[in-house]
Amino acid sequence: MTRLWRGGGMKLAAVLAMTSVILALCGFHIYKLVVESLQPCEMTYMYPSYTVVVIATSTRSSPVQSKKNLSSVTIHRITAAVKELGGTKYRLWRYTGDDPGRRRGSGLVLPVLFIPGNNGSHEMARSLASETTRRFSRLGMQILDPVELVWYMLDLEGELSAFDGRILEAQVKFALAAMKHLAAAHNITIADSGSSNNAIGAQAWDKAPGERRRRLHQHPGLVVVGHSMGGVVAADALARAAEDPELGPSIAALLVTLGAPHARPPVPGDPSLQSFYARAAGRPRPVLPLLSIAGGVADYQVATELTNPEGLTPQGMWRWLALPNLPGGWCPSDHNSLVWCNQLMVRLGQAMVDLAQ
């Protein structure tokens, strides 16, 4: 009798456990459907097009035409970028989608580097890139020498970077190589106390007759945008770049992350994932303006508290917002919608272009 009771009790426990799992999965599915049905995010539309960046060719056609005009640092950047970018399965793309009414500027070009996240694609940059293009075209003749944003995107093969620190490490190295290439292609120089050796990126031009000559002595640096784990990759790459004598802390002017789990991994993964976060936390951080945006209650993949950027840059240099608390971004967004939610894209794109001016 006791044996029968024990056997029946074990079966009952197994049935209850299975029922609990099924109910939990059903509850999560219902919650997901309800949240998605309440999300009023509007789609962003555009006519996207992309071109792959052929490193050797694009470097040869950079604004600096002769090696005798290059500093040794710039030459080394070109060599390192060609070697590192050419020897990997990852690729660098440039967004070439264009608004027919767009007026191209004759002044400074500000490169923007987009880094996708877990299972992400370089094409996820198209919504924000298109909104910056539209904003730039709307400026019209309001600004005499407009600063144009040119978008580059990393193609990371849709890897599952949220579960393996070794993948994150490889992506950080590729991001650094891409930064070296962009630094050489756009003449982004290392800021110092005024050495003439770092004036390679200086640009000078004459304005309209009767107006005085203006000189730009220092390129402001890259703008880096990272979605999900791409934001984690971006933050660590910029921290390493600050210690790299070829790049330095002035390589970037701004870091924007969308739904990036800076505080800790969103899910348990390989031990290498915890090791990556631990090494990143122990690394000195650059003095860099940082904006971290969370999707809010609609993002059930990365909780808002995980996107806290505290510690990534000194106090007062970062801003942490969760939708719908962003001015103009009046609705929450699920994790993947953060890269196309029109309410967010319009406001963020406008801010990026206006700040660039």
UniProtKB/TrEMBL annotation:
Subcellular location: Endoplasmic reticulum membrane
Membrane topology reported for the UniProt record: Multi-pass membrane protein
EC number(s) reported in the record: 3.1.-.-
Membrane spanning residue stretches: 12-31
PANTHER family: GPI INOSITOL-DEACYLASE (PTHR15495:SF7), NEGATIVE REGULATOR OF VESICLE FORMATION-RELATED (PTHR15495)
Family from the record: Belongs to the GPI inositol-deacylase family.
Described purpose of this protein according to its UniProt entry: Involved in inositol deacylation of GPI-anchored proteins which plays important roles in the quality control and ER-associated degradation of GPI-anchored proteins.
Protein name: GPI inositol-deacylase
Organism, scientific name: Volvox reticuliferus
